[in-house]
Specification:
Blueprint lengths: L3 H22 L6 E9 L4 E9 L9 E7 L6 H8 L10 H5 L11 E5 L10 H16 L2 E11 L1 H12 L6 E5 L19 E6 L8 H12 L4 E6 L7 H4 L4 H6 L10 E6 L6 E2 L2 E6 L5 E9 L2 E7 L1 E6 L12 E6 L2 E6 L4 E6 L2 E4 L25 E5 L7 H15 L13 E4 L5 H6 L1 E5 L6 H6 L5 E3 L6 E9 L2 E8 L6 H4 L9 H7 L4 E5 L5 E5 L9 H10 L2 E3 L9
Parallel strand pairs: 3-4, 3-5, 5-6, 6-7, 7-8, 13-15, 19-20, 19-21, 21-24
Antiparallel strand pairs: 1-2, 2-4, 9-12, 10-11, 11-14, 12-13, 14-17, 15-16, 17-18, 22-27, 23-24, 23-25, 25-26
Length: about 575
């Protein structure tokens, strides 16, 4: 018989369960330095970052946030100390200093220092980790979006440059310290026009030559950016001890707020992946080629735009003090004046007779955001390594194929331990969820790997049977993801002799792949490249390179475009 007492008992139990659930969600954080984690969908792992909360932390208050990036062979815990000016004690090793946090200066900032997998630079996966940390901090705490700052030392200084150059409208100010900047970044210097920059470097630095910071300071001054440069006489590769002394960097950051609507936007990029800044977005470009735009309000509802290498762009002026909605807007693009209605979005595309109003939309099958290459993009996000079993290989051959895929997936070395974990599997074990949620790194040919065979009709190029002394590597779109195909010799064959350029802090497999374009064909060894480069916007091999490929009789090329595989 159901009694009132039983009902009350169940009600109490339900209330207790609900109370416990709410208590778990309302997590309490301690003031001071600590370590938190976020879940990374790149490899289904928990990744750490160090966090500082000020004394008297108030969960209801909006706080400014500093993201601080560590240098090579360092970590998030050491870096959190250093950005507060707390280096190692005399005679103290890094492992010893990592074990505890000293008392840090009380500042009214939140400070987050990502681990970003270790010593990998800050492009690709570590870059995504930084943004994942930023998102995680925003999820947990109330952050002032107009007071988010970025700093880093050495490798982290280079990361500071890279993240600010590619997504400038996030940051209120940046402070790179003895920055080791990735090659090719100087072309993007105009992107820092609206971000205050403070550079620091020691003039006796043996690891990162001081000329790098001098060069950046000169270029930023030339374009009219707000830049300060502090050079320390006689200081070696520890200029952060002075740059961060007594937590002084927080005093400098506190002077600045993000400018959401600058009067002028200058933006340069080579990729759809990074195609916008502030109120300007590039809708059409040729991936791999430098595209540049300068847009400024000359008067109210009067814009002047200059472009180079741009096929289409969109301006979103709503909220800008120089824009009045509903009134006509005059836009001078590369000297030609167009009159359009003042709507929230103003789009323009390049046509045969010049610029005209309208959104640029890539043609079906043409390169576009998320489908542009190059090869390195296939391993810059979630991906799996797949070896072939389609031809029923012998146990010995199967083991060799498995070991090849495992070698490609192993980014750590005995000296360079990285917090990454990539899956390897046979083609027959790949599930639809893998196809829908991951990039694929495929080893073999259409004869040996069933997934390569599945893509064969759409692949821009394929290695012919019997061309075992060649190595062919290329990237192609696979639905919303990428397939990286390596047929014949593995891409690292002869890499030690080829000595290809690359950012020295990156792990060898990734560094090598970043040195490729969309495709590369070599014979015998990577120091004997037949042809390499970028596919056309239609995902075909350019004619001149196609002739070189045909001359080898080692490959088959797709002549016309087909819709990408799904």
């Amino acid at each position: 018989m159901f009694s009132i007492g039983t009902a009350c008992s169940r009600s109490v139990k339900l209330s207790l369960i609900l109370f416990c659930a709410l208590a778990l969600r309302a997590q309490v954080y301690s003031a001071g330095p600590q370590v938190l984690t976020f879940f990374s969908g790149i490899d289904d792992s928990d990744q750490p970052y160090a966090l500082y909360l000020p004394k008297g932390f108030d969960a209801a208050k909006k706080y400014p946030l500093v993201i601080s990036l560590h240098g090579a062979w360092s970590n998030h815990r050491l870096n959190l100390r250093r950005v507060f000016g707390k280096g190692n004690r005399a005679g103290e090793s890094d492992p010893e200093a990592t074990r505890y946090f000293p008392v840090l200066r009380d500042v009214d900032f939140l400070v987050a220092s990502p681990y970003s997998r270790g010593t990998m630079g800050y492009q690709g996966i570590p870059e995504q980790d930084v943004y994942d940390v930023l998102a995680d901090v925003k999820r947990r705490f109330s952050i002032d979006e107009d007071r988010i700052y970025l700093t880093g030392l050495s490798m982290g200084g280079g990361g500071t440059f890279w993240l600010a150059l590619t997504r400038p409208d996030i940051w209120a100010a940046i402070a790179p310290v003895c920055a080791a900047v990735p090659e090719g970044s100087l072309d993007l210097a105009p992107n820092l026009l609206n971000i205050p920059v403070h550079l620091f470097h020691g003039d006796a630095d043996p690891a990162v030559p001081v000329e790098q910071s001098r060069k950046w300071n000169h270029e930023l001054l030339r374009i009219g950016a707000n830049v300060q440069y502090t050079e320390y006489p006689g200081v070696r590769h520890n200029s952060w001890d002075l740059a961060y002394k007594d937590g002084a960097i927080f005093d400098w950051f506190s002077k600045f707020r993000r400018n959401r609507f600058p009067e002028e936007v200058r933006f340069a990029t080579r990729n759809y992946k990074y195609n916008s800044a502030y109120w300007v977005q590039l809708d059409g470009l040729t991936p791999g080629d430098l595209a540049k735009i300068s847009a400024r309000f000359k008067n109210r509802n009067e814009l002047v735009v200059e472009t180079s290498g741009v096929k289409g762009f969109t301006i979103t002026p709503a909220g800008h003090s120089s824009f009045a909605a509903g009134r006509a807007v005059s836009v001078a693009i590369d000297g030609a004046v167009l009159k359009v209605k003042g709507t929230e979005k103003l789009s323009f595309r390049k046509a045969g007779k010049g610029w005209q109003p309208g959104r640029y939309i890539p043609a079906p099958g043409e390169k576009r955001p998320g489908s542009e290459g190059p090869i390195g993009e296939a391993v810059a996000a979630r991906h799996v390594y797949v070896y072939g079993t389609a031809d029923s290989p012998s146990p010995e051959e199967l083991n060799q194929r498995r070991r090849q895929a495992e070698e490609a997936a192993e980014w750590s070395t005995p000296r360079l331990k990285l917090l990454v974990n990539f899956r390897t599997m046979a083609d027959k074990d790949v599930r639809e969820s893998d196809l829908k949620g991951s990039n694929l790194v495929l080893f073999g040919t259409r004869e040996t790997n069933s997934l390569i065979a599945r893509l064969a009709g759409d692949a821009p190029v394929a290695l012919n049977a019997g061309a075992a002394d060649f190595g062919l590597v290329f990237v192609m779109p696979l639905g919303e993801h990428y397939a990286l195909v390596n047929s014949g010799l593995p891409w690292w064959t002869g890499a030690d002799r080829a000595q290809r350029a690359g950012f020295r802090f990156m792990p060898p497999p990734y560094r090598l792949l970043l040195s490729f374009g969309d495709y590369i064909l070599f014979k015998g060894s990577l120091d004997n490249v037949i042809v390499e480069g970028r596919f056309t916007p239609q995902w075909t091999v350019p004619p001149q390179e196609a002739e070189k490929m045909k001359a080898t009789a080692a490959v088959t090329l797709r002549a016309a475009h087909r819709e990408p595989a799904k």
